[in-house]
Amino acid sequence: MYIEIEPASAVPIYLQLAQQVIEGVASGKLSPGAPLPSVRAFAADLGMNMHTVNKAYHYLEEKKMIEIVPKKGVFIHPEGIREATKEERERLLQELRPILAEAICRKLSKEELAELTGKLIEEIKEGTK
Amino acid sequence: MYIEIEPASAVPIYLQLAQQVIEGVASGKLSPGAPLPSVRAFAADLGMNMHTVNKAYHYLEEKKMIEIVPKKGVFIHPEGIREATKEERERLLQELRPILAEAICRKLSKEELAELTGKLIEEIKEGTK
Amino acid sequence: MYIEIEPASAVPIYLQLAQQVIEGVASGKLSPGAPLPSVRAFAADLGMNMHTVNKAYHYLEEKKMIEIVPKKGVFIHPEGIREATKEERERLLQELRPILAEAICRKLSKEELAELTGKLIEEIKEGTK
Amino acid sequence: MYIEIEPASAVPIYLQLAQQVIEGVASGKLSPGAPLPSVRAFAADLGMNMHTVNKAYHYLEEKKMIEIVPKKGVFIHPEGIREATKEERERLLQELRPILAEAICRKLSKEELAELTGKLIEEIKEGTK
DNA sequence: GTGGTCTAGACCACA
DNA sequence: GTGGTCTAGACCACC
Protein backbone atom coordinates (compact mmCIF):
# COMPACT_ATOMS: atom_id res chain seq x y z
CA MET A 1 0.00 0.00 0.00
CA TYR A 2 1.50 3.23 -1.10
CA ILE A 3 -0.43 6.16 0.25
CA GLU A 4 0.03 9.58 -1.19
CA ILE A 5 -1.46 12.56 0.55
CA GLU A 6 -1.66 16.08 -0.80
CA PRO A 7 -1.86 18.31 2.26
CA ALA A 8 -2.72 21.31 0.10
CA SER A 9 -5.74 19.63 -1.47
CA ALA A 10 -9.25 20.87 -0.77
CA VAL A 11 -10.25 17.35 0.17
CA PRO A 12 -9.45 16.75 3.83
CA ILE A 13 -6.48 14.60 4.66
CA TYR A 14 -8.54 12.02 6.52
CA LEU A 15 -10.75 11.61 3.46
CA GLN A 16 -7.83 11.24 1.11
CA LEU A 17 -6.49 8.52 3.36
CA ALA A 18 -9.84 6.76 3.54
CA GLN A 19 -10.28 6.94 -0.23
CA GLN A 20 -6.91 5.40 -0.82
CA VAL A 21 -7.71 2.56 1.53
CA ILE A 22 -10.90 2.05 -0.48
CA GLU A 23 -8.85 1.98 -3.66
CA GLY A 24 -6.64 -0.59 -2.02
CA VAL A 25 -9.68 -2.76 -1.46
CA ALA A 26 -11.00 -2.13 -4.96
CA SER A 27 -7.70 -3.20 -6.47
CA GLY A 28 -7.60 -6.33 -4.37
CA LYS A 29 -4.39 -5.28 -2.65
CA LEU A 30 -6.28 -5.30 0.62
CA SER A 31 -8.30 -8.46 1.12
CA PRO A 32 -11.08 -9.03 3.65
CA GLY A 33 -9.60 -9.58 7.09
CA ALA A 34 -6.26 -8.01 6.20
CA PRO A 35 -4.82 -5.91 9.00
CA LEU A 36 -4.29 -2.20 8.62
CA PRO A 37 -1.54 -0.36 10.50
CA SER A 38 -2.31 0.86 14.00
CA VAL A 39 -3.43 4.47 14.20
CA ARG A 40 -0.13 5.45 15.73
CA ALA A 41 2.04 3.53 13.30
CA PHE A 42 0.11 4.77 10.29
CA ALA A 43 0.22 8.35 11.53
CA ALA A 44 3.96 8.20 12.06
CA ASP A 45 4.39 6.55 8.70
CA LEU A 46 2.40 9.19 6.87
CA GLY A 47 3.64 12.09 8.93
CA MET A 48 0.23 13.01 10.17
CA ASN A 49 -1.55 13.09 13.48
CA MET A 50 -2.94 10.01 15.17
CA HIS A 51 -6.38 11.61 15.36
CA THR A 52 -6.48 12.18 11.64
CA VAL A 53 -5.85 8.51 10.96
CA ASN A 54 -8.41 7.70 13.61
CA LYS A 55 -10.98 9.84 11.87
CA ALA A 56 -10.30 8.11 8.57
CA TYR A 57 -10.69 4.72 10.25
CA HIS A 58 -13.99 5.64 11.87
CA TYR A 59 -15.23 7.02 8.58
CA LEU A 60 -14.43 3.69 6.96
CA GLU A 61 -15.96 1.76 9.83
CA GLU A 62 -19.21 3.66 9.42
CA LYS A 63 -19.18 2.60 5.79
CA LYS A 64 -18.62 -0.96 7.03
CA MET A 65 -15.49 -1.25 4.94
CA ILE A 66 -13.24 -1.96 7.91
CA GLU A 67 -13.66 -3.35 11.38
CA ILE A 68 -12.08 -1.63 14.35
CA VAL A 69 -11.47 -4.13 17.10
CA PRO A 70 -10.74 -2.21 20.28
CA LYS A 71 -7.30 -2.99 21.71
CA LYS A 72 -6.63 -5.41 18.87
CA GLY A 73 -6.29 -3.47 15.70
CA VAL A 74 -8.03 -2.53 12.52
CA PHE A 75 -8.95 -4.89 9.71
CA ILE A 76 -10.55 -4.85 6.30
CA HIS A 77 -14.07 -6.03 6.99
CA PRO A 78 -13.59 -9.79 7.32
CA GLU A 79 -16.98 -10.70 5.90
CA GLY A 80 -16.13 -8.79 2.76
CA ILE A 81 -17.52 -5.48 1.68
CA ARG A 82 -21.26 -5.80 1.35
CA GLU A 83 -23.07 -4.72 -1.77
CA ALA A 84 -24.37 -1.20 -1.94
CA THR A 85 -27.76 -0.65 -0.38
CA LYS A 86 -30.32 1.27 -2.34
CA GLU A 87 -29.46 4.34 -0.26
CA GLU A 88 -25.77 4.03 -1.00
CA ARG A 89 -26.33 3.64 -4.73
CA GLU A 90 -28.46 6.75 -4.59
CA ARG A 91 -25.71 8.63 -2.79
CA LEU A 92 -23.08 7.50 -5.28
CA LEU A 93 -25.28 8.70 -8.12
CA GLN A 94 -25.79 12.05 -6.42
CA GLU A 95 -22.04 12.44 -6.12
CA LEU A 96 -21.61 11.49 -9.75
CA ARG A 97 -24.22 13.94 -10.94
CA PRO A 98 -22.38 17.28 -10.80
CA ILE A 99 -19.25 15.74 -12.28
CA LEU A 100 -21.13 14.35 -15.24
CA ALA A 101 -23.08 17.58 -15.67
CA GLU A 102 -19.88 19.53 -15.97
CA ALA A 103 -18.43 16.99 -18.36
CA ILE A 104 -21.50 17.30 -20.57
CA CYS A 105 -21.17 21.09 -20.60
CA ARG A 106 -17.60 20.61 -21.66
CA LYS A 107 -18.80 18.74 -24.73
CA LEU A 108 -17.73 15.31 -23.66
CA SER A 109 -20.02 12.85 -25.42
CA LYS A 110 -21.59 9.89 -23.74
CA GLU A 111 -19.21 7.61 -25.60
CA GLU A 112 -16.13 9.54 -24.60
CA LEU A 113 -17.28 9.49 -20.99
CA ALA A 114 -17.94 5.78 -21.11
CA GLU A 115 -14.45 5.22 -22.46
CA LEU A 116 -12.83 7.45 -19.87
CA THR A 117 -14.64 5.86 -16.93
CA GLY A 118 -13.91 2.43 -18.35
CA LYS A 119 -10.21 3.17 -18.44
CA LEU A 120 -10.35 4.66 -14.98
CA ILE A 121 -12.05 1.56 -13.62
CA GLU A 122 -9.38 -0.67 -15.12
CA GLU A 123 -6.71 1.57 -13.65
CA ILE A 124 -8.25 1.32 -10.19
CA LYS A 125 -8.71 -2.43 -10.42
CA GLU A 126 -5.11 -2.92 -11.42
CA GLY A 127 -3.98 -0.67 -8.64
CA THR A 128 -2.13 1.61 -11.03
CA LYS A 129 -1.77 5.01 -9.48
CA MET B 1 -34.97 26.66 -13.74
CA TYR B 2 -36.04 25.01 -10.59
CA ILE B 3 -33.34 25.22 -7.98
CA GLU B 4 -33.44 22.91 -5.03
CA ILE B 5 -31.08 23.43 -2.13
CA GLU B 6 -30.51 21.06 0.75
CA PRO B 7 -29.40 23.28 3.61
CA ALA B 8 -28.37 20.31 5.75
CA SER B 9 -26.05 18.91 3.11
CA ALA B 10 -22.31 18.82 3.59
CA VAL B 11 -21.99 20.42 0.17
CA PRO B 12 -21.82 24.19 0.63
CA ILE B 13 -24.91 26.03 -0.50
CA TYR B 14 -23.05 28.16 -3.02
CA LEU B 15 -21.71 24.99 -4.64
CA GLN B 16 -25.12 23.39 -4.79
CA LEU B 17 -26.40 26.48 -6.53
CA ALA B 18 -23.51 26.56 -8.99
CA GLN B 19 -23.91 22.87 -9.77
CA GLN B 20 -27.57 23.32 -10.55
CA VAL B 21 -26.78 26.15 -12.92
CA ILE B 22 -24.30 23.82 -14.60
CA GLU B 23 -26.99 21.18 -14.86
CA GLY B 24 -29.22 23.79 -16.43
CA VAL B 25 -26.60 24.36 -19.08
CA ALA B 26 -26.02 20.65 -19.59
CA SER B 27 -29.72 20.09 -20.15
CA GLY B 28 -29.90 22.95 -22.63
CA LYS B 29 -32.38 24.87 -20.51
CA LEU B 30 -29.81 27.61 -20.25
CA SER B 31 -28.34 28.49 -23.64
CA PRO B 32 -25.23 30.55 -24.32
CA GLY B 33 -25.98 34.20 -23.73
CA ALA B 34 -29.09 33.53 -21.63
CA PRO B 35 -29.47 35.93 -18.71
CA LEU B 36 -29.34 34.78 -15.11
CA PRO B 37 -31.16 36.62 -12.32
CA SER B 38 -29.36 39.43 -10.59
CA VAL B 39 -27.54 38.51 -7.41
CA ARG B 40 -30.11 40.41 -5.41
CA ALA B 41 -33.14 38.89 -7.12
CA PHE B 42 -31.76 35.37 -7.06
CA ALA B 43 -30.92 35.63 -3.38
CA ALA B 44 -34.41 36.87 -2.55
CA ASP B 45 -35.94 34.19 -4.72
CA LEU B 46 -34.02 31.38 -3.09
CA GLY B 47 -34.14 32.81 0.39
CA MET B 48 -30.41 32.91 0.78
CA ASN B 49 -27.75 35.50 1.40
CA MET B 50 -26.55 37.71 -1.45
CA HIS B 51 -22.99 36.78 -0.62
CA THR B 52 -23.82 33.15 -1.24
CA VAL B 53 -25.26 33.78 -4.70
CA ASN B 54 -22.32 36.05 -5.43
CA LYS B 55 -19.89 33.33 -4.49
CA ALA B 56 -21.66 30.86 -6.76
CA TYR B 57 -21.51 33.31 -9.64
CA HIS B 58 -17.83 33.99 -9.19
CA TYR B 59 -17.18 30.27 -8.97
CA LEU B 60 -18.94 29.84 -12.31
CA GLU B 61 -17.16 32.80 -13.82
CA GLU B 62 -13.81 31.33 -12.89
CA LYS B 63 -14.84 28.18 -14.71
CA LYS B 64 -15.75 30.42 -17.66
CA MET B 65 -19.29 29.10 -17.66
CA ILE B 66 -20.88 32.50 -17.13
CA GLU B 67 -19.95 36.07 -17.80
CA ILE B 68 -20.51 38.78 -15.23
CA VAL B 69 -20.99 42.13 -16.97
CA PRO B 70 -20.87 44.95 -14.42
CA LYS B 71 -24.03 47.07 -14.40
CA LYS B 72 -25.56 44.83 -17.04
CA GLY B 73 -26.12 41.46 -15.56
CA VAL B 74 -25.01 37.87 -15.55
CA PHE B 75 -25.15 35.65 -18.61
CA ILE B 76 -24.34 32.11 -19.60
CA HIS B 77 -21.08 32.48 -21.43
CA PRO B 78 -22.19 33.80 -24.83
CA GLU B 79 -19.42 32.15 -26.81
CA GLY B 80 -20.52 28.81 -25.48
CA ILE B 81 -18.85 26.71 -22.85
CA ARG B 82 -15.41 25.83 -24.08
CA GLU B 83 -14.22 22.26 -24.22
CA ALA B 84 -12.41 20.86 -21.26
CA THR B 85 -8.72 21.61 -21.13
CA LYS B 86 -6.36 18.81 -20.33
CA GLU B 87 -6.17 20.00 -16.74
CA GLU B 88 -9.92 20.04 -16.39
CA ARG B 89 -10.29 16.55 -17.78
CA GLU B 90 -7.64 15.44 -15.33
CA ARG B 91 -9.50 17.09 -12.47
CA LEU B 92 -12.78 15.50 -13.47
CA LEU B 93 -11.12 12.10 -13.52
CA GLN B 94 -9.62 12.73 -10.10
CA GLU B 95 -13.06 13.56 -8.76
CA LEU B 96 -14.51 10.48 -10.38
CA ARG B 97 -11.87 8.22 -8.96
CA PRO B 98 -12.98 7.77 -5.33
CA ILE B 99 -16.59 7.35 -6.39
CA LEU B 100 -15.74 4.59 -8.83
CA ALA B 101 -13.41 2.95 -6.33
CA GLU B 102 -16.20 2.72 -3.79
CA ALA B 103 -18.59 1.42 -6.40
CA ILE B 104 -16.11 -1.32 -7.31
CA CYS B 105 -15.75 -2.31 -3.66
CA ARG B 106 -19.51 -2.51 -3.51
CA LYS B 107 -19.44 -5.10 -6.26
CA LEU B 108 -20.82 -2.95 -9.04
CA SER B 109 -19.50 -4.38 -12.30
CA LYS B 110 -18.13 -2.25 -15.10
CA GLU B 111 -21.25 -2.96 -17.10
CA GLU B 112 -23.61 -1.96 -14.30
CA LEU B 113 -21.67 1.21 -13.79
CA ALA B 114 -21.75 2.01 -17.48
CA GLU B 115 -25.49 1.51 -17.50
CA LEU B 116 -26.02 3.63 -14.41
CA THR B 117 -23.90 6.51 -15.64
CA GLY B 118 -25.53 6.25 -19.04
CA LYS B 119 -28.96 6.65 -17.48
CA LEU B 120 -27.74 9.47 -15.31
CA ILE B 121 -26.35 11.29 -18.33
CA GLU B 122 -29.68 10.98 -20.14
CA GLU B 123 -31.45 12.24 -17.04
CA ILE B 124 -29.22 15.27 -16.85
CA LYS B 125 -29.53 16.01 -20.56
CA GLU B 126 -33.29 15.85 -20.38
CA GLY B 127 -33.29 18.03 -17.34
CA THR B 128 -35.22 15.49 -15.33
CA LYS B 129 -34.59 16.08 -11.65
CA MET C 1 -32.31 21.40 29.70
CA TYR C 2 -30.31 20.75 32.80
CA ILE C 3 -27.33 18.60 32.04
CA GLU C 4 -25.44 16.87 34.78
CA ILE C 5 -22.15 15.21 34.05
CA GLU C 6 -20.20 12.97 36.37
CA PRO C 7 -16.60 13.24 35.24
CA ALA C 8 -15.59 10.36 37.47
CA SER C 9 -18.08 7.96 35.93
CA ALA C 10 -16.99 4.97 33.90
CA VAL C 11 -19.29 6.07 31.11
CA PRO C 12 -17.50 8.59 28.89
CA ILE C 13 -18.47 12.22 29.21
CA TYR C 14 -19.55 12.50 25.59
CA LEU C 15 -21.90 9.55 26.09
CA GLN C 16 -23.38 10.98 29.25
CA LEU C 17 -24.08 14.17 27.37
CA ALA C 18 -25.64 12.33 24.45
CA GLN C 19 -27.79 10.25 26.76
CA GLN C 20 -29.10 13.31 28.49
CA VAL C 21 -30.01 14.88 25.20
CA ILE C 22 -31.87 11.67 24.38
CA GLU C 23 -33.68 11.93 27.70
CA GLY C 24 -34.58 15.48 26.81
CA VAL C 25 -36.18 14.22 23.64
CA ALA C 26 -37.91 11.36 25.43
CA SER C 27 -39.41 13.75 27.95
CA GLY C 28 -40.59 16.08 25.23
CA LYS C 29 -38.47 18.95 26.50
CA LEU C 30 -36.67 18.91 23.18
CA SER C 31 -39.03 18.84 20.23
CA PRO C 32 -38.19 18.02 16.62
CA GLY C 33 -36.41 20.93 15.00
CA ALA C 34 -35.44 22.53 18.29
CA PRO C 35 -31.96 24.04 18.24
CA LEU C 36 -29.19 22.75 20.45
CA PRO C 37 -26.37 24.99 21.68
CA SER C 38 -23.35 25.41 19.45
CA VAL C 39 -20.47 23.11 20.23
CA ARG C 40 -18.50 25.99 21.66
CA ALA C 41 -21.31 27.45 23.73
CA PHE C 42 -22.31 24.05 25.09
CA ALA C 43 -18.72 23.20 25.91
CA ALA C 44 -18.20 26.46 27.75
CA ASP C 45 -21.51 25.99 29.52
CA LEU C 46 -20.68 22.51 30.70
CA GLY C 47 -17.05 23.16 31.39
CA MET C 48 -15.85 20.63 28.90
CA ASN C 49 -13.94 20.66 25.66
CA MET C 50 -15.47 21.59 22.34
CA HIS C 51 -14.36 18.29 20.85
CA THR C 52 -16.16 16.33 23.51
CA VAL C 53 -19.44 18.06 22.72
CA ASN C 54 -18.68 17.54 19.04
CA LYS C 55 -18.25 13.84 19.60
CA ALA C 56 -21.56 13.65 21.43
CA TYR C 57 -23.27 15.48 18.58
CA HIS C 58 -21.82 13.22 15.93
CA TYR C 59 -22.82 10.18 17.97
CA LEU C 60 -26.38 11.49 18.04
CA GLU C 61 -26.28 12.36 14.36
CA GLU C 62 -25.28 8.81 13.52
CA LYS C 63 -28.31 7.65 15.45
CA LYS C 64 -30.33 10.14 13.40
CA MET C 65 -31.59 11.84 16.54
CA ILE C 66 -30.17 15.22 15.62
CA GLU C 67 -29.20 17.00 12.44
CA ILE C 68 -25.92 18.85 12.20
CA VAL C 69 -26.20 21.64 9.65
CA PRO C 70 -22.69 22.84 8.85
CA LYS C 71 -22.18 26.51 9.65
CA LYS C 72 -25.75 26.78 10.85
CA GLY C 73 -26.11 24.84 14.02
CA VAL C 74 -27.42 21.64 15.48
CA PHE C 75 -31.06 20.64 15.73
CA ILE C 76 -33.21 17.84 17.05
CA HIS C 77 -34.01 15.86 13.94
CA PRO C 78 -36.76 17.94 12.33
CA GLU C 79 -38.62 15.01 10.82
CA GLY C 80 -38.91 13.50 14.27
CA ILE C 81 -37.04 10.54 15.60
CA ARG C 82 -37.82 7.58 13.43
CA GLU C 83 -39.00 4.30 14.87
CA ALA C 84 -36.42 1.72 15.78
CA THR C 85 -35.30 -0.50 12.94
CA LYS C 86 -35.17 -4.23 13.54
CA GLU C 87 -31.42 -3.91 14.03
CA GLU C 88 -31.80 -1.18 16.62
CA ARG C 89 -34.42 -3.11 18.57
CA GLU C 90 -32.06 -6.05 18.58
CA ARG C 91 -29.24 -3.86 19.88
CA LEU C 92 -31.42 -2.40 22.60
CA LEU C 93 -32.37 -5.90 23.69
CA GLN C 94 -28.73 -6.95 23.72
CA GLU C 95 -27.94 -4.03 25.97
CA LEU C 96 -30.84 -4.89 28.22
CA ARG C 97 -29.83 -8.51 28.52
CA PRO C 98 -26.93 -8.39 31.01
CA ILE C 99 -28.80 -5.93 33.20
CA LEU C 100 -31.85 -8.14 33.41
CA ALA C 101 -29.71 -11.23 33.95
CA GLU C 102 -28.07 -9.65 36.94
CA ALA C 103 -31.41 -8.48 38.27
CA ILE C 104 -32.75 -12.03 38.02
CA CYS C 105 -29.75 -13.37 39.91
CA ARG C 106 -30.45 -10.80 42.56
CA LYS C 107 -33.89 -12.31 43.03
CA LEU C 108 -35.88 -9.54 41.45
CA SER C 109 -39.09 -11.11 40.17
CA LYS C 110 -40.54 -10.37 36.78
CA GLU C 111 -43.28 -8.35 38.46
CA GLU C 112 -40.87 -6.27 40.50
CA LEU C 113 -38.83 -5.57 37.40
CA ALA C 114 -41.91 -4.59 35.45
CA GLU C 115 -42.90 -2.20 38.20
CA LEU C 116 -39.43 -0.69 38.44
CA THR C 117 -39.06 -0.17 34.71
CA GLY C 118 -42.59 1.21 34.57
CA LYS C 119 -41.75 3.80 37.20
CA LEU C 120 -38.50 4.60 35.48
CA ILE C 121 -40.29 5.14 32.19
CA GLU C 122 -42.74 7.54 33.79
CA GLU C 123 -39.86 9.35 35.42
CA ILE C 124 -38.09 9.77 32.09
CA LYS C 125 -41.24 10.87 30.32
CA GLU C 126 -41.93 13.50 32.93
CA GLY C 127 -38.38 14.67 32.76
CA THR C 128 -37.84 14.14 36.48
CA LYS C 129 -34.16 13.76 37.15
CA MET D 1 -22.33 -23.61 29.52
CA TYR D 2 -21.78 -22.36 26.05
CA ILE D 3 -19.82 -19.17 26.06
CA GLU D 4 -19.89 -16.97 23.01
CA ILE D 5 -17.53 -14.05 22.74
CA GLU D 6 -17.63 -11.33 20.13
CA PRO D 7 -14.05 -10.11 19.87
CA ALA D 8 -15.04 -7.11 17.77
CA SER D 9 -17.55 -5.87 20.32
CA ALA D 10 -17.02 -2.65 22.21
CA VAL D 11 -17.80 -4.60 25.38
CA PRO D 12 -14.51 -5.82 26.84
CA ILE D 13 -13.98 -9.55 26.54
CA TYR D 14 -13.65 -10.06 30.27
CA LEU D 15 -17.04 -8.39 30.75
CA GLN D 16 -18.68 -10.49 28.08
CA LEU D 17 -17.39 -13.57 29.84
CA ALA D 18 -18.58 -12.41 33.26
CA GLN D 19 -22.00 -11.52 31.88
CA GLN D 20 -22.43 -14.93 30.39
CA VAL D 21 -21.56 -16.56 33.68
CA ILE D 22 -24.21 -14.36 35.27
CA GLU D 23 -26.68 -15.49 32.65
CA GLY D 24 -25.74 -19.05 33.49
CA VAL D 25 -26.68 -18.39 37.09
CA ALA D 26 -29.87 -16.59 36.13
CA SER D 27 -30.98 -19.52 34.02
CA GLY D 28 -30.22 -21.97 36.79
CA LYS D 29 -27.61 -23.80 34.76
CA LEU D 30 -25.07 -22.79 37.35
CA SER D 31 -26.32 -23.50 40.88
CA PRO D 32 -24.83 -22.20 44.12
CA GLY D 33 -21.64 -24.08 44.87
CA ALA D 34 -21.17 -25.33 41.31
CA PRO D 35 -17.53 -25.35 40.23
CA LEU D 36 -16.25 -23.18 37.41
CA PRO D 37 -13.25 -24.17 35.29
CA SER D 38 -9.81 -23.13 36.48
CA VAL D 39 -8.48 -19.91 35.06
CA ARG D 40 -5.99 -21.86 33.01
CA ALA D 41 -8.48 -24.39 31.67
CA PHE D 42 -11.12 -21.78 30.88
CA ALA D 43 -8.62 -19.61 29.06
CA ALA D 44 -7.43 -22.53 26.98
CA ASP D 45 -10.99 -23.58 26.31
CA LEU D 46 -12.06 -20.15 25.12
CA GLY D 47 -8.83 -19.32 23.39
CA MET D 48 -8.24 -16.23 25.41
CA ASN D 49 -5.58 -14.93 27.73
CA MET D 50 -5.44 -16.16 31.33
CA HIS D 51 -5.38 -12.58 32.52
CA THR D 52 -8.70 -11.99 30.84
CA VAL D 53 -10.40 -14.93 32.55
CA ASN D 54 -8.81 -13.86 35.78
CA LYS D 55 -10.19 -10.40 35.44
CA ALA D 56 -13.66 -11.76 34.78
CA TYR D 57 -13.45 -13.94 37.88
CA HIS D 58 -12.33 -11.10 40.09
CA TYR D 59 -15.09 -8.93 38.69
CA LEU D 60 -17.61 -11.62 39.65
CA GLU D 61 -16.01 -12.13 43.03
CA GLU D 62 -16.33 -8.45 43.80
CA LYS D 63 -20.00 -8.74 42.99
CA LYS D 64 -20.10 -11.71 45.36
CA MET D 65 -21.45 -13.93 42.64
CA ILE D 66 -18.58 -16.40 42.84
CA GLU D 67 -16.05 -17.47 45.43
CA ILE D 68 -12.42 -17.92 44.60
CA VAL D 69 -10.84 -20.45 46.92
CA PRO D 70 -7.06 -20.44 46.54
CA LYS D 71 -5.64 -23.82 45.54
CA LYS D 72 -9.13 -25.26 45.41
CA GLY D 73 -10.94 -23.61 42.59
CA VAL D 74 -13.70 -21.24 41.69
CA PHE D 75 -17.34 -21.75 42.64
CA ILE D 76 -20.67 -20.09 42.22
CA HIS D 77 -21.22 -18.44 45.57
CA PRO D 78 -22.32 -21.40 47.73
CA GLU D 79 -24.60 -19.37 49.97
CA GLY D 80 -26.53 -18.24 46.95
CA ILE D 81 -26.45 -14.88 45.31
CA ARG D 82 -27.56 -12.31 47.81
CA GLU D 83 -30.37 -9.94 47.03
CA ALA D 84 -29.55 -6.61 45.55
CA THR D 85 -28.56 -3.94 48.03
CA LYS D 86 -30.12 -0.54 47.68
CA GLU D 87 -26.99 0.71 45.91
CA GLU D 88 -27.08 -2.15 43.46
CA ARG D 89 -30.71 -1.57 42.63
CA GLU D 90 -29.90 2.06 42.10
CA ARG D 91 -27.04 1.15 39.80
CA LEU D 92 -29.19 -1.24 37.79
CA LEU D 93 -31.76 1.50 37.34
CA GLN D 94 -29.09 3.93 36.24
CA GLU D 95 -27.91 1.45 33.64
CA LEU D 96 -31.45 0.87 32.48
CA ARG D 97 -32.19 4.55 32.14
CA PRO D 98 -30.44 5.47 28.87
CA ILE D 99 -31.70 2.32 27.19
CA LEU D 100 -35.29 3.08 28.11
CA ALA D 101 -34.89 6.72 27.13
CA GLU D 102 -33.77 5.73 23.67
CA ALA D 103 -36.58 3.22 23.38
CA ILE D 104 -39.09 5.93 24.26
CA CYS D 105 -37.63 8.23 21.62
CA ARG D 106 -38.00 5.42 19.16
CA LYS D 107 -41.70 5.33 19.87
CA LEU D 108 -41.79 2.10 21.82
CA SER D 109 -44.78 2.30 24.14
CA LYS D 110 -44.67 1.26 27.75
CA GLU D 111 -46.69 -1.82 26.88
CA GLU D 112 -44.40 -2.86 24.04
CA LEU D 113 -41.41 -2.40 26.30
CA ALA D 114 -43.03 -4.43 29.05
CA GLU D 115 -43.73 -7.21 26.58
CA LEU D 116 -40.23 -7.14 25.15
CA THR D 117 -38.53 -7.20 28.54
CA GLY D 118 -40.92 -9.91 29.68
CA LYS D 119 -39.94 -12.09 26.74
CA LEU D 120 -36.29 -11.35 27.30
CA ILE D 121 -36.57 -12.36 30.95
CA GLU D 122 -38.19 -15.64 30.00
CA GLU D 123 -35.46 -16.21 27.44
CA ILE D 124 -32.76 -15.65 30.00
CA LYS D 125 -34.44 -17.85 32.60
CA GLU D 126 -34.77 -20.68 30.13
CA GLY D 127 -31.18 -20.23 29.11
CA THR D 128 -32.14 -19.81 25.46
CA LYS D 129 -29.41 -17.92 23.69
C1' DG E 1 1.16 -2.79 22.41
C1' DT E 2 -3.74 -1.34 21.06
C1' DG E 3 -7.75 1.88 20.54
C1' DG E 4 -10.72 5.21 23.54
C1' DT E 5 -11.13 9.41 25.63
C1' DC E 6 -10.17 14.11 26.87
C1' DT E 7 -8.02 18.59 26.70
C1' DA E 8 -6.07 22.67 24.41
C1' DG E 9 -5.39 25.62 20.92
C1' DA E 10 -5.25 26.75 16.08
C1' DC E 11 -6.82 27.94 11.21
C1' DC E 12 -10.33 27.70 7.67
C1' DA E 13 -14.55 28.10 4.82
C1' DC E 14 -19.06 29.22 4.96
C1' DA E 15 -23.19 32.09 5.90
C1' DG F 1 -20.48 32.96 14.63
C1' DT F 2 -20.87 28.24 12.97
C1' DG F 3 -19.05 23.58 12.28
C1' DG F 4 -14.84 21.17 10.00
C1' DT F 5 -10.26 20.02 10.24
C1' DC F 6 -5.72 19.35 12.10
C1' DT F 7 -2.11 19.15 15.47
C1' DA F 8 -0.12 17.97 20.02
C1' DG F 9 0.14 15.69 24.03
C1' DA F 10 -1.89 13.20 27.83
C1' DC F 11 -4.03 9.29 30.59
C1' DC F 12 -6.64 5.03 30.66
C1' DA F 13 -8.37 0.23 30.14
C1' DC F 14 -7.66 -3.78 27.92
C1' DC F 15 -5.01 -7.63 26.01
TrEMBL record, chains A, B, C, D:
**Keyword tags:** DNA-binding, Transcription, Transcription regulation
Residue ranges of domain HTH gntR-type in the record: 11-79
Concerning InterPro entries, the annotation shows:
Tscrpt_reg_HTH_GntR, WH-like_DNA-bd_sf, WH_DNA-bd_sf
SMART domains according to UniProt? HTH_GNTR (SM00345)
Q: Which domain of life is it from?
A: Bacteria
Q: Which Pfam families is this protein grouped with?
A: GntR (PF00392)
Name the record gives this protein: GntR family transcriptional regulator
Q: Upper lineage ranks?
A: Bacteria, Bacillati, Bacillota, Bacilli, Bacillales
